[in-house]
Structures are given as structure tokens and as C-alpha cells.
Automatic annotation (TrEMBL):
Biological classification of the source: Eukaryota, Metazoa, Chordata, Craniata, Vertebrata
Coiled coil: none
PANTHER family: GLUCOSE REPRESSIBLE PROTEIN MAK10, N-ALPHA-ACETYLTRANSFERASE 35, NATC AUXILIARY SUBUNIT
Region named Disordered: 381-405
Organism: Anguilla anguilla (European freshwater eel)
Name by which UniProt lists this protein: N-alpha-acetyltransferase 35, NatC auxiliary subunit
Signal peptide (from-to): none
InterPro entries: Naa35_N (IPR007244), TPR_NAA35 (IPR057982)
Superkingdom classification of source: Eukaryota
Comp. bias (Basic residues): 390-403
NAA35-like TPR repeats domain sequence ranges: 170-554
GO cellular component: NatC complex
């Protein structure tokens, strides 16, 4: 899949038989399949009959070929199903994938049949298969490093198809998610597995089956409305509010939601790219969200002034703005964290990345989530009050569910992990255990500004420039200034706090467990370092990102 641009069939003048329809192809495969099935039946052993070895071999080979043809047909039919606009076709694809998966053990058990791959060392270390020329695209490549298509071994092929089927089955599950925030999370989680380009593409086509409808039946406009209601409960979208049927208010909110559609579709589509391309595009989409933020604030102000005239006890301040800000912050956080996953940062840069996350972005995110939570509760109280007035019966107070509470908790844990890492890096630097480059042609300021350059387009939150960062993170403002031991101890407290928060999360998901795998050893290491463990050694610490891609386990050798 990595070489798809090198294999454009038209380059070779091969038109891929465009005159043959998909239906005809699957029909022909079915004909071949039926023919093979007849041969399998005619060659199978009968009771009391002496078996001819040649007939037995033919039976096994026909059976093996039958399974492969059937697998090809099922896979192709499933892929064709994804091109249809009805969500029922996705369920159909899911069933087909289950059937295809059932054939893989039989395919694996018959790998020894047929022409086997030849190993030709003159053409690399990969097997040479009849009908495949690894260097077929060589003359079409740009004059860069030589690239060849590596034909994978048959055993690996079965494993690949098994994983592909699992990924396609996962893609099919997206139709069960109808909430915008849920869909965004689904795309993020799916992308974290670094899926192949085929499964990423299928997810995209399933999400936006046509330009206006999401998942074949939901209007993006309605999904955004529901997301706003679920996140911040703006009065303008509450049927109990006078703005709900106000024409002017309707125009304001409809115009705003229409303008939201494109950036949010783009944001979801960004997760269809590979991880490196995603990061690049996240940096660019911040500009669109900055424009949206500006509009949200204007619409909020207009709706607030309208509401004051009609219902003075209510307010419409920072509702839409809070929601857009939340998404902007998530993009910014994702942008910075993905740098760890892609191994873009040098060790000496860790401290300001973790500082920006803990002291700034996560602080803003938690403030935004708390504001949204308060807004929801205030709206609920007003709604309940109106219901009580309209009803003479006494209603029992229900225990309110707070949909944002889990995210607030997770953000606190992330903030503590980032703060712990920031203080760890500062302390290690004090002890001379961070290798720094000899700045000749650039400086730390240049690197810092390069890392946070995409944030310059965002007004809220305002970007923290290097000079501000140095002032805000200057330890000399404390009296007495903390020593490395103090910072190690402070870092261990942050990791401890993250651990406590996560251990109290109900029904923890794998992410919670992954963070705990980092927090627990780091608590111990920080306490050891605070006690002066290996203080004299100048061996650089190791940062092990195997347990979690954003937070390393610190190892002192």
C-alpha cells in the first residue's frame, strides 16, 4: 500500500478493463468458484474406495484454489459494498468479512501447494513470485533512492489479510456512533493503530458517503447541533428558551453551524492520513478554527444581547466560543503530543513541550471543560425550574449525569503527567544529564518558535512566545530557588497524583492502564533521584516510550 502512487495502471497503458462492471467481475468469480466446487466434490474420497494419490492431490489443490477464489470474491464484494450510500451495505460488508476470515485458516493450511517463491539474491532479499516483477516501476520513479515493491511471503500474506479484515470490521463499527465527538474519538483511536491506506480510505468513505450526509443518513448540520447541545447546552438550542423559535436567533445559529461543517469534516478527514501527514495538516487547520472561534464569539454576543431583552435571567455568554475553543485546544494538544510519537523532539526540547502542555494547554482545556460543565448544569437548573412551574406534581430529584466528568478527570491526569515530565527534565538538566547541542547557526529560541509556529494563527488561547516562556518558567523567582532534588520530589508527586486520579476512574480503558504503566515506575525513579541516587554519574538517562507513546518511563543506568 505504500507504493500506490507508483502503480498507476494508466502509466503503463493498462486500462484495468474499465468496460467490465463490478457486478460482472463478482459474477465471473462466482462462476469460477462454482466450477471449482464441482471439481472438489467430484474428486473427494468415497467410502471404501482406494485413493489415487494424483486424484487426492487434485482434490487438495482444487479445494485450496476454491478457498482463494471465494476469499477474493468476498473481499471484493465487501469493498464494493463500501461504495454504496446506504448504511445497510456496511453491515453487509461486515458479514462478508466474517465469512472471509473463516477461509483464512484453510488458506494457511494449503500454502505448500502450487508454485513456491524463489529467492533470488540478485534482486534483494525478498521472494520472487511468478507473474510479479519487483522492479516493474523502477523506470517511473523519480531520481531519489531506489524503491522496489517487496512481495511479502505467503505466511505473512495470511497474517496481513487477517489484520486487514479486523481493521475493516472495526471500520464497520463507525456506523454505530452517531455523535460528532464520538466519531472524532473513533477516528483518532483508529488512526492510532497506524492502519493501512485501504482501511483508512474505507473509513473516510463510510463517514462521508456523500458531500452532505454523514454515515449515509445524518446531516452534518444536525450532528453539530447535537454536539453543541451535548457539550455546552446553549440556550439557543433549548426548546424551553425563547430564542429557540426566534427567527433572528435561528439565522445566527444556522449560519454559524453551516460555517462549522467544513472545518469539522476536514478535521475528521485529516485522521485518514498517515500520522506524519496528520500532524502537518493539524497545524494548518488551526487557522480555520481560529476564524471559527472569532465567529463563535460574535454570534454568542449577538445571541446574548437578544436574550437579555427577552429573558433577563438567562445568559448566552461564551457558549459557542467554549465549544470551538475546546476543539482548538484538542487539536493543539494532539499536534504537540504527536511529535513524541513521531520522534521529532530531541531530549533537550522535552522540557518546553511538556511545560507548554501542562502549564498552558491542559490548564486551558480543563478551564474550558469546567465552563462547559457549569453551563450544562445551569441550563439544566433553568429547565427543571420551568418544568416545576408548569407541573403541580412534585418531581423526584434525579442524580445528574455529568457527561464531561470523565474527560475532565483524564485531562487532570494528562496535565499531571506532563508536569511531572517537565520537572523531571529541568532537574535532569540541573544535574547535567541532558545533552544539549552546540547552538551555532540557531538557538533554543529558534527551535522553540519553530515547534509552536502553527499556534501563532490562534488568538485564543494566545500563543506563549519564547521570552514569556522563559519568564514564566524561571526558577529564580522562587526564594530559595528549588534544587534538582526538590524538582525530582515535585515530579514524583505529579506522577503520584496522576496515578491516584487514574486508579479512581470507573471502568478504566486501555489508555488509563498505559499511563499507569508509566506513572508507577516514574514515581519510584523520581524518589530515588531525589535521594541522590547515581547523582555523580554522567550517563544520560534513557526515555522508554514503549509503554506509552507520549510519556516515557525514565531509566537511570
Amino acid at each position: 500500500m505504500g507504493f500506490q502512487e507508483d502503480f498507476q495502471a494508466m502509466t503503463y497503458g493498462f486500462k484495468m478493463a474499465n468496460n467490465v462492471t463490478d457486478l460482472r467481475v463478482t459474477g465471473m468469480l462466482k462462476d469460477v468458484e462454482d466450477d471449482l466446487q464441482r471439481r472438489v466434490k467430484s474428486t473427494r474420497s468415497r467410502q471404501g474406495e482406494q485413493r489415487d494419490p494424483e486424484v487426492e492431490l487434485e482434490h487438495q489443490q482444487c479445494s485450496a484454489l476454491f478457498n482463494r477464489i471465494k476469499f477474493t470474491r468476498l473481499l471484493l464484494t465487501a469493498l464494493i459494498a463500501f461504495t454504496k450510500k446506504e448504511t445497510s451495505s456496511v453491515s453487509e460488508a461486515q458479514k462478508l468479512m466474517t465469512q472471509a476470515a473463516d477461509l483464512l485458516p484453510a488458506i494457511h493450511s494449503t500454502l505448500q501447494h502450487g508454485v513456491q517463491a524463489q529467492n533470488d539474491t540478485s534482486k534483494g532479499d525478498h521472494p520472487i513470485m511468478m507473474g510479479f516483477e519487483p522492479l516493474v516501476n523502477q523506470r517511473l520513479l523519480p531520481p531519489t533512492f531506489p524503491r522496489y515493491a517487496k512481495i511479502i511471503r505467503r505466511e505473512e500474506m495470511v497474517a496481513y489479510f487477517s489484520k486487514l479484515i479486523d481493521r475493516i470490521k472495526t471500520v464497520c463499527e463507525v456506523i454505530n456512533t452517531t455523535h460528532l465527538h464520538g466519531i472524532l474519538d473513533f477516528f483518532c483511536e483508529f488512526s492510532e493503530q497506524s492502519p493501512c491506506v485501504l482501511s483508512r480510505s474505507l473509513l473516510q468513505t463510510t463517514f462521508l458517503m456523500d458531500s452532505k450526509k454523514v454515515l449515509g443518513s445524518h446531516l452534518m448540520h444536525d450532528m453539530i447541533k447535537d454536539a453543541l447541545r451535548g457539550f455546552v447546552s446553549p440556550p439557543v438550542l433549548s426548546p424551553k428558551c425563547c430564542l429557540y423559535n426566534n427567527h433572528q436567533a435561528k439565522d445566527y445559529i444556522d449560519s454559524f453551524i453551516t460555517h462549522c461543517s467544513r472545518p469539522f469534516c476536514s478535521l475528521i478527514q485529516i485522521h485518514g492520513h498517515n500520522r506524519a501527514r496528520q500532524r502537518d495538516k493539524l497545524g494548518h487547520i488551526l487557522e480555520e478554527f481560529a476564524t471559527l472561534q472569532d465567529e463563535a464569539e460574535k454570534v454568542d454576543a449577538a445571541l446574548h444581547s437578544l436574550l437579555l431583552k427577552l429573558e433577563p435571567q438567562r445568559q448566552h455568554l461564551a457558549c459557542l466560543g467554549t465549544w470551538v475553543l475546546y476543539h482548538s485546544l484538542r487539536i493543539m494538544i494532539h499536534y504537540l503530543l504527536s511529535g513524541f510519537e513521531l520522534e521529532l523532539y530531541s531530549m533537550h526540547e522535552y522540557y518546553y513541550i511538556y511545560w507548554y502542555l501542562s502549564e498552558f494547554l491542559y490548564a486551558w482545556l480543563m478551564s474550558t471543560l469546567s465552563r462547559a460543565d457549569s453551563s450544562q448544569m445551569a441550563e439544566e437548573r433553568i429547565t427543571e425550574e420551568l418544568q416545576r412551574r408548569g407541573s403541580s406534581k412534585k418531581t423526584k430529584k434525579k442524580k445528574k449525569t455529568r457527561p464531561l466528568s470523565r474527560e475532565i478527570t483524564m485531562s487532570q491526569a494528562y496535565q499531571n503527567m506532563c508536569a511531572g515530565m517537565y520537572k523531571t527534565m529541568i532537574a535532569l538538566d540541573m544535574d547535567g544529564k541532558v545533552r544539549k547541542p552546540q547552538f551555532e547557526l540557531d538557538s533554543e529560541q529558534v527551535r522553540y518558535e519553530h515547534r509552536f509556529a502553527p499556534f501563532n494563527s490562534v488568538v485564543t488561547p494566545p500563543p506563549v512566545h519564547y521570552i514569556q516562556f522563559k519568564e514564566m518558567s524561571d526558577l529564580k523567582k522562587y526564594t530559595p530557588p528549588p534544587q534538582s532534588a526538590d524538582l525530582y520530589l515535585a515530579a514524583s508527586k505529579h506522577f503520584q497524583q496522576a496515578k491516584l486520579i487514574l486508579e479512581n476512574v470507573p471502568s478504566p480503558d486501555p489508555e488509563v492502564n498505559r499511563i499507569l504503566k508509566v506513572a508507577k515506575p516514574n514515581i519510584v525513579v523520581m524518589k530515588l533521584l531525589a535521594g541522590g541516587h547515581k547523582k555523580e554519574t554522567k550517563v544520560l538517562p534513557q526515555f522508554d516510550f514503549s509503554a506509552h507513546k507520549y510519556f516515557p518511563v525514565v531509566k537511570i543506568i
